[in-house]
């Protein structure tokens, strides 16, 4: 139980900031393109209470933490009214990309902070170890959330980014593919339970980018004395 509580406490700050910033970024970009729907509903905020989803923000991430994994999940999607966009196609693309982009930025900031602490702060500092662990989790969670949402499957952000370039029959065929998405996710989960970890293909770029930034930023800052 102590291990589970420690895992939750270590992952929670990075997890909450990642999913809340993801949705707030969608809301901010939508407002920039002329759609104030999310802003008017109080979603243009970093307050977790405005974005939480019972399953994605509480149940699923706690289940992940209890089974030894880093907390991962989702927040309640912000409402978007594309008819309000000043530029329809650009609006769809950039509003969709804003969420993953915010996570890539947050992950990079977390990596810079980790490198600063690792190279400029004494290991005797009482919060040294936990700070390094929390920032490492924040890096991984943000990058994993970004890469997962860039998968071009409806309703993920990647599919909306692609749809912004399509029109006519091509757009219709692409959007009709959404009916197969639940079956695909169920199949992925079934294969994972069977020992074929297909979700690992999403984790691989997140893990590699996390390790790359940590190693090279620490080397860079350490070399600066």
Description:
The chain is mostly helical. It has one domain. The chain has helices at residues 2-32, 37-40, 54-66, 88-120, 128-149, 157-163, 168-176, 181-193, 200-223. The longest helix is centred in the middle third of the chain and has 33 residues, at 88-120. The radius of gyration is 19 Å and the shape is globular. The mean pLDDT is 87.
Report on the biggest sheet: none
- Rounded to the nearest angstrom, the distance between the terminal CA atoms is 41 Å
What's the count of strands? 0
Unreliable stretches covering 5 or more consecutive residues: none
Count of discrete structural domains: 1
- Overall SS class: mainly alpha
In round numbers, the mean pLDDT is 87
- The global form is globular
**Alpha-carbon Rg, integer:** 19 Å
Approximately how much helix is present in the residues? 55-70%
Beta fraction: under 5%
SSE succession: HHHHHHHHH
Number of helices: 9
Summarize it.
With 225 residues, this protein is mainly alpha-helical. The chain contains nine helices and no strands. Helix 4 (88-120) packs across helix 6, helix 4 crosses helix 9 (200-223) and helix 5 (128-149) crosses helix 9.
Descriptive key words:
mainly alpha, 225 residues, 0% strand, globular
């Amino acid at each position: 139980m102590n291990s589970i509580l420690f895992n939750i406490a270590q992952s929670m700050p990075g997890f909450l900031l990642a999913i809340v910033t993801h949705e707030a970024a969608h809301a901010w970009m939508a407002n920039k393109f002329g759609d104030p729907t999310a802003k008017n509903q109080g979603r243009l905020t970093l307050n977790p209470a405005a974005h939480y989803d019972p399953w994605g923000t509480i149940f699923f991430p706690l289940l992940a933490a209890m089974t030894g994994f880093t907390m991962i999940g989702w927040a309640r999607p912000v409402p978007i009214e594309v008819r309000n966009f000043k530029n329809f196609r650009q609006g769809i693309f950039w509003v969709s990309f804003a969420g993953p982009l915010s996570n890539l930025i947050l992950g990079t900031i977390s990596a810079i902070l980790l490198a600063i602490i690792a190279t400029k702060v004494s290991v005797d500092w009482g919060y040294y170890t936990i700070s390094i662990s929390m920032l490492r989790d924040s890096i991984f969670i943000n990058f994993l959330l970004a890469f997962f949402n860039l998968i071009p499957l409806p309703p993920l952000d990647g599919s909306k980014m692609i749809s912004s370039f399509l029109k006519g029959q091509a757009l219709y065929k692409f959007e009709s593919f959404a009916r197969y998405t639940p079956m695909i996710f169920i199949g992925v989960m079934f294969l994972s339970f069977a020992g074929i970890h297909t979700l690992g293909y999403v984790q691989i770029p997140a893990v590699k980018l996390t390790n790359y930034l940590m190693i090279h930023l620490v080397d860079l800052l350490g070399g600066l004395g």
